[in-house]
Design brief:
134 residues, single chain
Length: 134
């Protein structure tokens, strides 16, 4: 016989309220007295809890973005924000990434012939010959 679930529908609203204050999903388990694995199990067993989780993550991100914007625009009323810590927090919580431009422009291409030999190369031999030079 399976143990009765501790899940209650009221946890949906409580989760959203918890995370919109900036707290993590997993710490909600500590608030209501269940493990994070229990929270994950509730997601698959209760679609409304999964929906609440998705909304809660959006609200949590909104909390942290507002905090950053408030400090960047100097409307923070005397408190200080460590930008590096804030940025790392956003990367860890919301999968933010540094943008890396990797645009590669090929200006010219050439056909190359590579000669392989089991003999040791002589110093004057060129094993990489342009086919255009032949």
């Amino acid at each position: 016989m399976a143990r009765p679930t501790k899940y209650r529908k009221k946890y949906c609203a409580e989760l959203i309220e918890h995370m919109e204050k900036g707290f993590s999903y997993e710490t909600f388990g500590a608030v209501i007295g269940v493990s994070k694995q229990t929270l994950y199990n509730w997601e698959s067993d209760n679609p409304e809890f999964l929906d609440a989780k998705e909304l809660a993550f959006c609200r949590c991100q909104l909390f942290w973005e507002r905090l950053g914007i408030t400090h960047i625009t100097n409307t923070h009323q005397g408190t200080r924000l460590n930008a590096q810590v804030w940025s790392l927090n956003m990367k860890n919580r919301f999968s933010w990434k540094d943008k890396v431009d990797q645009d590669i422009e090929v200006k010219e291409t050439k056909d190359v012939t590579i000669n392989f030999s089991s003999e040791a190369p002589r110093r004057d031999e060129n094993y990489f010959n342009d086919t255009e030079d032949k």
